[in-house]
Amino acid sequence: MPCGAGPFDPKERHHLCPCGAPLLARYDLGAAASWNKSSLAGREPTMWRYREMMPLLDGDVPVTLGEGFTPLFHAASLGRELGLDALYIKDESLNPTNSFKARGQSTAITRAKALGAQTISVPSAGNAGNAMAAYAARAGLKAHVFLPRDAKEPFVLECRLYGAQVTLVDGLITDAGRIALETGRPLGWYDVSTLKEPYRVEGKKTMAYELAEQLGWRWPDWIVYPTGGGTGLIGMWKAFEEIETIGWVPRCKRPKMVSVQAENCAPIVRAYEQGKEKADPWENASTVADGLRVPRAIADFLILRAVRESGGTALAVRDADMVRDMVEIGRHEGVSAAPEGGAALTAIRQLVADGSIKPHETVVLFNTGGALKYLDVLKSAGSP
Known about the structure:
Radius of gyration: 19 Å
Order of helices and strands: HEHEHEHEHEHEHHEHEHHEHHEH
Structural class: alpha/beta
Strand order of the largest sheet: 1-2-10-7-8-9
Number of domains: 2
Strand content: 5-15%
CATH class of the largest domain: Alpha Beta
Low-confidence stretches: none
């Protein structure tokens, strides 16, 4: 850790470092260098195929619903429209509970159960709460989800479907996080808030392992990633180092990481443009993309570091454009995209238009969730 604390015992509960920064899991990469990627042949098509580099101790059994190893589609139709030869969509909507949040909650709940937790809590904009509730049910644990009061009804109902207790909070996800902590800490609840425990990021990092495997053990030129809390972007950047160190992908030019946010909630973009290492909280955050309505990310400095070290960028897009492009993803490619996925396509349009992305470069668009929880948005867009 930057403050010099640690190392910490993985057999004990940990959340934030004493200095307030997120904790990240580390592995013996020297020993892992003997792990050959040929061992993946015949393994289950889930993220746990990479278990040697996952937070499992002897005797641990993953809490799984089959998450991960989502398809990487060659988006040929959209590519032709944009003039791109190698545009791909990593479709995270095909995870359990319809979003990439399944990855992080699978690893977080796996470790929580191994550490003896009985009750799990999480603040959420929607999808993380759905995933946590599902994996807590799978693990036989009690679940408490704290959502903004204006959360879309499908998010609330799905949490209850899995048996979770839902508390609606006035304000944004940051307010939900404060109430969740105030309620759960005195009762000993295990908090799986974004990057306030070390293991959600371990599930999200497997997206990089999958990309490497699906692209024949090479990196794409660009990764365009809708960013709220930024766990996936941070996790993939962490995974690049792991994968290169164990020798599965040569050390070469890593993907340019593009952090995409909503125009009316863009703290990372503002900090990037101002050259800051940390982002100031965004006042009066609003966007139709619930996953992007995060006025402050606790690991903002890690997001910004990955974007800058990769030679990438941070872009803000308008709600109207992201909604248009979620429809375009469906119309062109048959992929059910949430507004967050639409935001990534809008960002790609901008980068192609300004000449940053070249026609021959390999570009991966992350669709982080499905459209069906956003039917109100589709109706307002006039989608048939």
